[in-house]
Amino acid sequence: MKIAKTLDIYSEVIFMNIETFYKITYGLYLVSSVKDGKYNAHVSNTVFQVSAEPPLFAICSNKNNLTTEYMEDSGVVGVSVIQEDVDLQFIGKFGFKSGRETNKFAETNFLIGKTGAPLITDKVIAYFDCQIESVADLGTHKLFIVKVLDAQTLKEGVPPLTYRYYREVIKGVSPKNAPTYHAPKVETKKTEDKLMKKWRCELCGYEYDPAHGDKEHGIAPGVDFDDLPDEWHCPVCGVDKSSFVPLG
Ligand code: FE
Question: How far is the CA of 182 from the centre of ligand 1 (A)?
């Protein structure tokens, strides 16, 4: 079979360029569901429309994610389209914390859709209320085919967040459960004749790069990690400086 032959060739390609994977474009979404009256959601870059009539989406979700368990239990799912001018704390809350330890809906505005799925309305421009039609097992992930039963736009003229914008402008990273996760490369940058190391958050993988600083929190480019104020926290998951390790 042709597919098997292609896979044989693929398995021989040992030195793949991981950067090539970043050429694939994605949007970023909140995928939400319910189980026994409890709500949970996570950030997903793998939501895409696969048919028009009926309107079907494909959603890929890690088996370890609590939302995946909720989706399989209730058979319903909400998808909210994150707006571009979102902050890293919001991404951190839904993308880097587990619903097993924290109630992500405690301080979150949301609606309940016709399916019963929670639909997050904070920092999003639109939502979709969906019913799960089928599930495929992909090993580490599950691929859900879902039918859209309701769709509403909340904000016109506000661009949706793309994965490229998240990585290149907001300087965000992928959580370990994301299909796009790659272990970060260890490297250092030389700035003004001083070797300034990047530091990585052990909890969420965010990298503090002195060459970029942390503009959102008033840290200008060129500030070494050691010179960051003691009250500085990881802009993604909120842990303090002691949870960071130097790279390189
Ligand atoms: Fe962090």
Answer: 16
Q: Phi-psi region for residue 124, left (φ > 0), alpha (ψ -120 to 50) or beta?
A: beta
| Separation of CA 84 and ligand 1 centre (Å) | 20
How far is Cα 234 from Cα 208, in angstroms, rounded to an integer? 8
The CA distance from 111 to 146, in Å, is 19
DSSP classification of residue 210 = T
At 27, list the tokens.
């949007």
What's the pTM? 0.77
CA–centroid distance, residue 158 to ligand 1 (Å) = 27
> What distance in angstroms lies between residue 239's CA and the mean position of ligand 1's atoms?
6
The helix (run of H) or strand (run of E) holding residue 120 is: strand 118-120
User: 53 C-alpha vs ligand 1 centroid, how far in Å?
Assistant: 41
Evaluate the CA torsion angle 21, 160, 30, 244 in order and state its sign.
positive
Instruction: Encode burial over 34-54: b for 16+ CB neighbours within 10 A, e otherwise.
Output: bbeeebbbbbbbbbeeeeeee
List, for residues 166-222, the tens digit of each pLDDT value.
887 777 777 777 777 665 554 444 444 456 899 988 777 788 999 999 988 889 999
Close Cβ partners of 97 (under 8 Å, ≥ 6 residues apart): 104, 237
